[in-house]
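## retry 2 of 3
previous attempt timed out at serialization; input unchanged, resubmitting
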Amino acid sequence: MGQICFEAGEAKNTYGTGCFLLFNTGTNPIQSKYGLITSLEYQLNDQKPVYCLEGSIAIAGALVQWLRDNLCLISKASEIEDLARTVKDNGGVYLVPAFSGLFAPYWRSDARGVMVGLTQYVNKGHLARAVLESTAYQTRDIVEAMNKDTGMKLRELKVDGGMVSNEILMQFQADTLEVPVIRPRVTETTALGAAYAAGLAVGFWSGMDDLRQHWSIDKIWSPRMRSDERENTYRNWKKAVERTLNWID
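## retry succeeded, writing output
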């Protein structure tokens, strides 16, 4: 509601301690075959309920906290962007934060975290990049599953949550998904959605079109990565994910 994803095919992702990506599937619930959850998105008055597919990521912003508190490479979470800017890429490093297993779309409790691709060239800037890119890659894993389940291709992704202030992450998210990433002016969209629904119920808002006009964009990131680079880096990510599996007997 807070991201006005009212049409089938629209999606939003919340970047917090974890990530929660919802993909509107319309009035017909889709039973996922690729590791997602079928959820009720909303129902207004006597209208048909609208459903969505949901994908959950356990470790997103929590990985930045791990870099700060456990490795002590930064003193506060906001410093990760400046550290990541000291290098031009991840230096070949991929970090899969399966600290207590992998959530959607894998659902593997036997997985544990890995950091792969380390060489003597790698420094803390590359680790910072790998931490941010991990969230974007996990999001792509979910989007790939959603595209398969729905037969629709994601056209754009609306974003909210504490991590969306990170410009490097948002640009890389657009690059790896190959779709625009859109940040609204109001990023506390859970509260905004509740206000929208309450306003509709009491007649403060005239309807969905009124909400669309009220909602506004702060910034859009467009993909700019070459297709061969996009697919090569994602292929490396998938290889890294494979290394996490079957760790716990």
